[in-house]
C-alpha cells in the first residue's frame, strides 16, 4: 500500500480500500475506552481504541454516537520505518457506517515520501509556514 508503484485509484475503491493491498498481522494492543463525561456534548459518546503496544499509536478505534450505536470505525494502516527507527501510518481510514462513506488520509504514493531528515525550526510552525505549504 505504501509503494510508489501504486496509484491512488488502485488503492481507493468505492466503499473500501482495495483488500489486495492491505496486510493484517497480529499485534499486542492495549484497549482504552473513553466515555463522555456527564453533562458534556460531543459527536462521540464512547471511543473504544486499540493502541499498538510497540508504537503506542491508535491502530483501530470504534466510535459510538449518543444512541450507543457504532457510528464510525477508524483504522490506521501501520508501517515500520526501520532506518529511523519508528512506526508510522501509511494510511488512515475513517468509515462512516451510517452514510456508508469513508475518508482516507495520509497516502503519499504519488507525492514525496516522508522526509525524516528534515531540519525544522520554530518558523516551520507558524501560520505563514502553513500558507506557504498550501496549494491553490
Automatic annotation (TrEMBL):
Superkingdom: Bacteria
Gene3D superfamilies: Lipoprotein localisation LolA/LolB/LppX (2.50.20.10)
The name this protein goes by in its record: DUF1329 domain-containing protein
Organism field: Shewanella glacialipiscicola
Amino acid at each position: 500500500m505504501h509503494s510508489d508503484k501504486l496509484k491512488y485509484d488502485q488503492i481507493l475503491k468505492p466503499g473500501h480500500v482495495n483488500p489486495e493491498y492491505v496486510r493484517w498481522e497480529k499485534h499486542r494492543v492495549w484497549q482504552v475506552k473513553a466515555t463522555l463525561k456527564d453533562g458534556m456534548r460531543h459527536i462521540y459518546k464512547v471511543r473504544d481504541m486499540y493502541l499498538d503496544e510497540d508504537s503506542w499509536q491508535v491502530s483501530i478505534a470504534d466510535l459510538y454516537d449518543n444512541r450507543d450505536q457504532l457510528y464510525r470505525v477508524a483504522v490506521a494502516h501501520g508501517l515500520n520505518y526501520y532506518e529511523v527507527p519508528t512506526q508510522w501510518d501509511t494510511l488512515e481510514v475513517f468509515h462512516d457506517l451510517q452514510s456508508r462513506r469513508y475518508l482516507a488520509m495520509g497516502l503519499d504514493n504519488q507525492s514525496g515520501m516522508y522526509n525524516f531528515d528534515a531540519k525544522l525550526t520554530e518558523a516551520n510552525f507558524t501560520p505563514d509556514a502553513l500558507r506557504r505549504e498550501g496549494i491553490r
